Structures are given as C-alpha cells and as structure tokens.
Amino acid sequence: MIWISMFYEFFKTGLMAAGGGLATLPFLYAMAAKTGWFTTTDIANMVAVSESTPGPLGVNMATYVGFQVLGIPGGIWSTLSLTCPAIIVVTCIS
Asked: What residue ranges do the domains of the chain occupy?
C-alpha cells in the first residue's frame, strides 16, 4: 500500500508543482504532515543535498524521500512518480 501512496503523492506533486524544484516545498511539507515519512528537518536536509548535487531539485528531493522510506527501489519509484506527469503531458502535446 505504501508504494501506491508514494506514487500518488509524488504524481500529484509532479502534476501541480510548476515553477521548479522549490515549488515542490509546499507539497513536501503537506506530505510530511500527512504521511510521517520524513520531518521538517529532513526537508531542510533534502534542500541542502539537492542544491549540492547535479540534477533538478524536485527530482533529487523525490529520490531522497523514496530512498529514505523504501531504499533504492523506493528512490527509483518516487523519481518515476514525480516525472510521470511531465512525460504524459509532453507525449500528449507531441
């Protein structure tokens, strides 16, 4: 059940958070309060780690959360969940 919940939360975040990785922060705060997968202190750590590693900020944060909750498969799952809406929209437009 946690896999479906994680997919839903990050799919929703990827669909609604237009404007870059920092636009995902309100969704992450809401997710932390709703699920308890991470704390607000973890969000500060996610931003710090995501800013210091290459790649999009939102994707790095999703990978961090997925890895913390479900290990390597969770990191892959949450990253795919976050990027899935963009892939669907671009495919429909093209």
From this structure: 2-93
